Request: fold
Amino acid sequence: MKKRIIVIGGGVAGMQTALRLAEQGVEPVIVEKEPELGGKLRGWHVLFPSFTPAEEVLTALRRRVNESGIEVLTSAEVVGLEPRSVRLADGRELHGDSVVVATGFTLFDASIKEEYGYGIYDNVLTSADLERMFNEGRVARADGTAPRRIAFLHCVGSRDEKVCQQHCSKVCCITGVKQAMEMKKLFPEADVFNFYMDIRMFGPGYEEMYREAQQKYNIHFVRGRISEAAPTIDGRVQIKAEDTLTGRPLRMSVDMLVLLIGMRANDDNARLAEGAGLNRASSGFMAPRDLFLGNVCSNVGGIFYAGAVTAPKSIGETLNEATAAADAAAKYAEA
Amino acid sequence: MTFYAPFCLPFILGAALMFLIVAWKWGKWLWLLPHEDKMRILRGLPTRRTVAAIGEVVSESLLHRRIFRVNPLLGYMHMSLAFGWFLLILTGWIETVAHIGFRYVPLQGHVFFKYFATGLEHKPVFDFLMDLFLLFVLSGVALAWGKRFYSRAMGMHRTTKHVLGDRIALSALWFIFPARLLAESTTCALYGGGSFLTGSLGGWMAEHIGVMPLMTLESVAWWFYSSCLGLFFVALPFSRYMHIFTEIPLIFLRRYGVRSSEKESSYDRFQVEACSRCGICIDPCQLQSVLGINDVQSVYFLRDRRYGHLRLQVADNCLMCGRCVERCPVNIDLNTLRLNSRDRMRNVPDERRYGYFKGLDRSSGEGKVGYFAGCMTLLTPRTLTAMSTIFEAAGEEVWWADREGGVCCGRPLKLAGETDSARKMMKYNADLFRKHGITTLVTSCPICLKVFREDYDLPGVEVLHHSEYILRLIRAGRLTPERGTTRFTYHDPCELGRGSGIYDEPRAVIEAVGQLLEPASTRENALCCGSSVANTAISDGQQVQIARAVAGELEATGADVIVTACPLCKKAIGRGTKGEVRDLAEIVAGALK
Reply:
C-alpha cells in the first residue's frame, strides 16, 4: 500500500512538496485553509528578478497538481498536528505516515506603523496593494490621477524592534527595486525614491537589477528610514526622513507612498508548535532541527518543514526546499 | 557624684565622632548651597514655615506617619524605634533633672543614669516609664527581626539588599536595646529598683545568680551596651542611619523652598543621605515586578550615588514613572535626583548638532490657540486627525505649532541628561510661540505638557493638555459628543497623572462619551506603560513585557476600548494587546455628530 503524507498548506511550498512526493511514489494530500490553491502568490503580479508573471508559475504548479491526481482539501484549516495525523477545524482528523508543514507566513499589518498613515490617509499603500493594482491594470492615486512622485519605504515591519519584528524579511529589498522599476515603466515622467537602511541584494541578478534601476531608470535611493508621514492640503503625503549619508533631515511631498511590508510568522504557529512539541525561533517562525543537515526537519520525528514557515524565503528557494522536504518526508514514511 | 566609668569610653568616643562628622557634613553642605538657596533659608527662618517644619519633623522623623499609610505594622515598627528611643532619651533627661536638679551632667550621665544613680532614692514613676518605653522600643526591634524573615506581614514583598556597613550598623542597633535591658536589669538585681521589666528581670537574676557573678555580669553588660552604642554611632554617618539626623534639616530646607534641579547642588546631599533604605520604593517598581531587575530602584540609585559608585547603567535604568516617589516616606525628589545624575554623566552639548534650526521656521497662521501635537502624536496620526476634527467642530482657529517650524519640546533630551541641548530646543520653541503671540497652547502629549509648564518661560500663555482643553469645549457647549454605550477603561499616563496632577479631566471627558471602568491600579497608583522615554536601558522586548502586564490589567476591567491620553502610552499599550487602544481625542471625535 502506498504511504500517505499530509502536506499542510497549498501555496508554492505545499504544491511543490506534493508534486515531488507524488513523483516519489508516495500519496500526498494537500490541506489548504483558503478555498483555492496558490497561497500568497495569488496576489502577486510579476516575480523578481526576471519579471516572470506570477500567474505563469502558479498556473504551471496548479496544472501539474491537477494532472498528478493529488488529493486536495480546500477551506480546511488545521488546528493541531502530530507526526501521523492532523486535526481540522471542522473536527475531521486525517491520518498519514508523516506531515510536511508548509503554512508560509503572514504579511505585516502596515497600520501598526501608525506613523505612516496606512489606512488613515489616501495614497499610502503597501507593496501587496501595489501588486494587486498592477494585476488590475489600474495604478493611480486615490483621485484617479497619475503619480508624479513616488516614495518606496523599505523595512516596514522588518528589522524593527519597535514592532517586535527583529528579523530581515529578505525579499522586500529586491521587491522594492522591482516595483520601482515597474512604476517607472508605467510613469516614465515620475520621480521614484527608495528609502532604505540597507539594500540587501543577495540573489543572482539582483545586484545587476539594482544597478540598472539607478543607471537606466534613474530611481533614487536614499539611505534613511522615513520617520513619519502626514497628509498635505492638496491630498499628497508629506514625508520626513533623514538622509543618513549626508546627515541632513529632509522633508518632501509625494503623490504615493508605498510601504514594503515584511513577512512575519503566522499567529497560529504558537498553537501548532505547542500542541506538537515543536521548537520556534524567537522571531515566531518555526525552528528547523538544525540549519545545515536538518534544515527541512523539525525537532519532532515525522514532521517536516517546507518554505517560509521557517523563515522568509524567495519563490526559488521555497521550491528547492519543498523538494528537499518531500524527499525527507518520503524517506521517513518508507522507513 | 561622678558620672564616669571606664565602660563609658566606647560611647563617649563614638558619640563625639558622630557629632563631629554630622556637623562637618551639614556645615559643608549648607556652606556649598547656592546663594539664592541660602537667602531662601534666611528669609524663611522667621516665618510660619519653621513652625510647620517642626510639626513635620515630629510627624515624620519621630512618628513616621507616611509609613503608616504604606502598612500600619511597618509604621509601628519604625515609630517604635524612632519615637520610642526619643522618649527614652527625653524621659531619661527629665529623670536626671528630677533627681539632681538643673546642673551640668555629661552626656554619658544621662544615658547611663541607671548605673550612676544606684545611691539615689528610687522614683517608681520614672522606673515605670523608662521600662514602658524600653518595651516599646524592644517591640520594634522584635518586629525588625521578624521582618527579616517574613516581610510580607508588613506589606513588603521585597526588602533592600544591604551593604556590609549597613549590616554592621544594623546589628549594632539591634543589640543596643537588649543590651540595655540586660545592663539595667543586672544593676537592678544588685541594687534594687526598676519596674515591671528591668525590676522583674533583676529580681529573677538576684534569686538565681550569686552576687559575685552578677557583679561581673553587670560590668560586662554595661561594657557591651556602651560598645553597641559606640559602634552604632561611629557607623551612623557612613551608613543608612545618617537619615535619622539628615531628614530633619531636609524638612526645614524643603519648607523654605529649596529644591533640587536639573543640575546637581549640595542640597541634593541632604536628600540623598536622608534615604533610610527602607526599601518601600522597591515593590511599586515595575522593572522589578515585571522584569525582575532588582538593582536599579531608587534605594540602590541613592546608595550608589551617595558612595560615589553610580554607573550610567543604573542611572539610566528607570522609567521615571514616579510610582516610587508617591510612596517614599521621606518625600525625596527621586526623579530630579536621577535627572541631575544623568546630567552630570551625560551632558555634553554638541554645538554643531543644532545648525538645522536656522531656516526651519516656515510657520504661518493667525490662531491665538497654538496646537503642539508633539513628536509622538505626529507618529500616531489618528490622534492628530481626531484633534483636527475637534478643532473644526468647535470652530477654533488653530496655529499648528509643530507642523511647520516647531522642534521637539526638549523633554526627552532632558530626561536623558542632555540638559544643555534640551535648553536649546526649549529656547527655539519658546521664541516661536512668542513670535506668534498665542494665548493658549494645547498639546496632546503629556511629556511636552510637563516641560512647557515647568521649564518654558511663557508669560501670558496658558498651557493645556488636550484633555483639559476638550473638557472645556464640552462644558462651554462648543463640542457636543453623543454619549454611547461603549465601555471604556482609562490608563493614566505617568507624565499626565503623577507628573502633572491631571486625573479628573480625562475621566470627565470619557464619561461624556461612554461608560468608564477603572482598572485595579489607577490614578496615583497607575502603572507605567513601560515605553517611557526616560528609560534608555531596557530593550524593546522588555518594554513589551511591561506593556503586556499593563494591558492585562486594563483588559481585566472588561472594557471594550482602552483609552489613554498620551501618544506614547497608546503606542506602548498597543504592543501589549490585540484589543482596541484609543487616544481620548479619537473617542471624542468619533462621538461627534
